[in-house]
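Journal club side-thread
Mid-discussion, someone asked how the predicted structure for our own chain would compare to the paper's figures. Pasting it here so we can look after the session.
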Amino acid sequence: MTDKKAAIEGILFTMGDAVEGERIAEALSLTEDEFQQQIDELIQEYENPSRGMMILRLGTKYQMCTKTECYEDLIKLCHVPKKHVLTDVMLETLAIVAYKQPVTRADIDAIRGVNSDFTINKLLEYHLICELGRLEAPGRPIVFGTTDDFLRSFGVSSIDELPYIGPEMVEEFKQEAEEEATIGV
């Protein structure tokens, strides 16, 4: 019988992408508690500064990846991955999707007050958002949500870790937007 921690490590390394903890536990005939204990120990072992890898927790999924401290050395060997530049418009749209998901294109357009087709297509291309399905409404519009790449890019393990935006912050944003709108007038 294989050591369960070694098996989890092998699965995460081989899969490359994030894998549901439940699927791993099921494949290894582990209870949820047994799996959680094993993965927590592995995560702690990979926190050692002498290790170049780490295990990311993305909601209920886990992924093995290179520590950011190793990127500089990695880039010397590999091609530099293309960095996506997010414009203010893209960040605004991404924030709407993150906080309102699942959300339709029409909802995004209504909040922004302009057509968001180009921006949504770019965010889809960058794999920061994805289509979650279709709404049971006339025209069956597509609903969007964020991806694991979004979580990785913003350094959070779940949407719940996003900053809370209360009514007072919304009012402050409105005032700033109104001031910006009157600057050129």
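Post-session note: The mean pLDDT is 88.
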